[in-house]
Predict the 3D structure of the following.
Amino acid sequence: MRTLLVGVLAVTLVSAGCTSTISGTPYRSASTLEMYGAPPVLKPLEVSGFLGNPCKVLTQPQMAELTILEPGTPRTTGPIWENDPGCQWFREDIPSRSVVGMGFLPSNKHGLSDTYRGRDRFEYFIETTVDGYPAVFNETSAEAPPEGDCTVTVGVSDTLTFRASENGGPKGGVVCERTKEFASAILATLKAGA
């Protein structure tokens, strides 16, 4: 009987040592949800005002700075876009204009963690930040950036990301820097609010 009592007491103490109670609002942390190595978003942004009109993520001055001369084309219908709305523009600063686009990814319910979870799909996967927000360059082909294509996925909360991309841009590593500059402009607008 004494051995049984000591065993029950030991299990109770071990269990009590692993349990904690936190009052207040429930929160998501790396210890309670698998993050797959993705860093948390420390300053989440409220972007719901842009989901219905994603072309609003660039202001006229930003478009001029990025050599975008025409308004964007919304991408909000169709099998992909109705769940993950986006917008597409053309940059006019190279001989053959390039296509730049962005898309919110609300269907990825775990934000940047979903991109990290699928990292095996990407031959090109490089962690970075954009203006203090966690991000990752991700392409299915390692040859994409040298050929003028680059995508960066940026976490705006632990449950939402957006992708910014350039296709047909300058060949070599500079295309990813341009994509990061594009993502930075988007973040500036998101921070200012709808």
User: Anything to note?
Assistant: Helices lie at 2-17, 48-51, 60-65, 112-117, 174-192. The mean pLDDT is 83. The first strand starts at residue 73 and ends at 75. DSSP finds five helices and seven strands in the chain.
